[in-house]
Amino acid sequence: MSQSMLSDMSEFHWMMDMLQTVDVGLVVLDRDFKVKLWNGFMESHSGLLPSQVRERCLFDLFPEIDKKWFINKSRPVFELRNRAFIIWEQRPYLLRFSNYRPLTGTEDFMYQNITLSPLTSPTGRVDHICMMIYDVTDVAAGKKLLESAQVTLSEWQERV
Amino acid sequence: MFSVLICDDSQVARKQVAKCLPQDWDVAVHFARHGEEAVTALDEGKGQLLLLDLNMPVMDGYQVLEHIQQAGLHTAVIVISGDIQPEAHERVKRLGALEFIEKPIKPEVLSGLLVKHQLFVKEAAQPVKQLDRLEPAIRDCYQEITNIAMGQAGDHLARIFNVFVKLPIPNVNLIEASELLMMLQDIEDKETVSGICQGFVGPGVCGEALFILSDSSFTDVAKILDIKEEVDDRVQLELLMDAANILIGTCLNGLANQLDMHFSQGHPVVLGQHRNITELINTNRTRWRRTLAIELSYGLEGYKVQCDLILLLTEESLKVLNNKLSHLLED
Predict the structure, then answer these.
(1) Residue B22's domain spans which residues?
(2) In chain A, which residues have their Cβ closer than 8 Å to the Cβ of B156?
(3) How far, CA to CA in Å, does B300 sit from each of A122, B174, B194, B304?
(4) Which of A22, A112, B9, B271 could form a disulfide with B56 if both were Cys (CB 3.0 to 4.6 A apart)?
(5) How far off is chain A from B209, nearest CA to CA, in Å?
(6) Which residue positions in chain A have pLDDT lower than 50?
(7) What is the average per-residue pLDDT within B29-47?
(8) B148 lies in a domain?
(9) Contacting residues of B for A73, CB less than 8 Å apart
(10) How far does the CA of residue A124 sit from the closest CA of chain B (Å)?
(11) B215 plus B315 within the same structural domain
């Protein structure tokens, strides 16, 4: 094997390793919302192994997901090849994962921002989308705290 | 430090007056809710400048002016009142007020008077590197690529929502921070709005997309999307996000394709719901000086829906963009 092929191979392995360990949930879904890929983050937080979820429909695995809502959000991604963003202010989470810091965290669950991004097949069609789940618990907790502080402050100012 | 005392019984008015003070004026601002509080503060030595309302409970503005005269206090007073009768003007002037400003107060009026009475000295303009003027040919290029991109965005919107989209002519301008505010105020048209902003970045290019939807649009947007439930704040946020995702996403994709680059998009941030435009973008407006603003105003035929998409690009990005676009200009 030539030197350059070897280095290509190791780069590919590095990339796979990083996708597996990156602290962002990565899921690939097809048009029927069957799970095609499930990275380490998803495995750790859901407790479900890739082998347990592969080829199974997301809505069967997690019946708590509002199916109609989620399909609506993903429609422009399939049809328009457009990224779609869902932020925690809309819904605190898509999948109920527990707080990353179970002891010192103030919230019970993980607040999530979600990006749905199209994956183009070699033929140019979008048959799959990638779902990225970000943990934004600290941002959400911080913002909620700030808002309640502002309310207290303005109440206090009104009283003085 | 120079101290400014703002006396008004309305909290909204106090805030507004404070906001109208020159941005770069390093002063301590104090507040009083009626004349008596103002007099106490004056006696404590606060308020070298007093911005005074007239009609207030406990002790009104005229009484404050009388007190200042009798006690021989050296405070400069500018009266800010909704009372626009000539008699009111004359009375406060007789009582020693420097000026009378009618409500609603405008920042340029206030700063003009502050300069006139030498209370506030405008710092000599920093010698700044002059940015190349936007060449008409380059502006044409921006306009054209935006036209194409927004055509695609409009088409996408039309297909997803099954409506006819009235496409505007994109407005491309190099603007100062203060002009952005004015431009947004123009959109505001006296009604409240909700906004989303999203950062985007590509090689050497970065900026933000602002999506602004007037609150009166929500009923019709809900109709188009066939939403039966009550359109509460949560539903409105969903609608706002859906529309923003499609418009910002397709517009950026369209631009990126033509520029042969790829933009990463950050997570959208809710600027606010049901707010004044000025409230939406009040934060950190001092960090930047100039921006290329591409302004797009979308309407939907047969519906009362008005939304604005504004793409703002940093000064640094323009070098890269102009370079890319210069290829389009070559014959």
Answers:
(1) 3-116
(2) 76, 80, 82
(3) 36, 28, 18, 7
(4) B9
(5) 14
(6) none
(7) 89
(8) yes
(9) 242
(10) 15
(11) yes
